[in-house]
Specification:
By secondary structure, the protein is mainly beta. The protein is about 10% helix and about 60% strand.
Length: about 210
């Protein structure tokens, strides 16, 4: 082999030797790593919770005008997220602040309320917009103008709210409720015994701890 051919042959061999490695680098690469979306990014509304609430109660549609009372209480419930919706149930116990409601010839005071509510809503990430409906039991107190029934009177409840998650465990919410109690019997010295329907409106803010 001549001096000119020998260097050329060595260069060809070196090129052939490095070609498979270069091809391997061009052909293969690390596969992208798939990460499961975090619970916060998917809403994460499934689970139980307990919490506190406080707000304003009034016989008028706007609880912030006219006669109103401070109310507050506790709640607990469970939500389940499925097919893009959230459904759940909640029990709520409230002190109504002795808000006055009209009866023929006078007034009665609402003292305590126990509500059993169903909820359904639309999750928007960390925000939940929902409606609620259920049954409410209310205890009434006499006033100087009327005497009311003993025990608890049943009624029905409608409402709506919005809840915002602050982290995986803590959320805050604002909720409106309308409660109507039918056939409340009362006695007044001037008008005697009568039956009437009473109602109230509440707007309350609350905080929940989820577990």
């Amino acid at each position: 082999m001549s001096m000119t051919v020998k260097p050329f042959a060595l260069a060809v061999c070196a090129t052939l030797a490095t070609t498979p490695a270069l091809a391997a680098d061009l052909t293969y690469s690390d596969s992208p790593v798939y990460e499961e979306p975090s619970a916060a990014s998917s809403g994460g509304w499934t689970g139980g919770y307990v919490g506190l609430h406080a707000g304003s109660a009034s016989e008028r549609v706007n609880p912030f005008s006219g006669d109103k009372e401070f109310m507050g209480g506790v709640q607990g419930g469970y939500n389940a997220e499925m097919n893009g919706f959230v459904v759940g149930g909640e029990l709520e116990l409230s002190h109504m602040g002795d808000v006055e409601v009209d009866v023929p010839g006078g007034d009665l005071r609402e003292r305590h309320r126990l509500a059993a509510k169903a909820k359904a809503g639309m999750p928007l990430g960390d925000t939940l917009v929902y409606g609620t409906a259920g049954m409410a039991m209310t205890s009434l107190r006499d006033t100087g103008t009327a005497v009311g029934p003993d025990g608890w009177k049943p009624g029905w409840l409608l409402g709506a709210g919005i809840e915002q998650k602050f982290n995986q465990n803590i959320s805050g919410r604002v909720e409106y409720n309308y409660v109507k109690t039918n056939d409340v019997r009362s006695f007044n010295a001037g008008s005697g015994t009568s039956e009437t329907n009473i109602s109230d409106h509440t707007i309350k803010a609350g905080v929940n701890y989820r577990f």
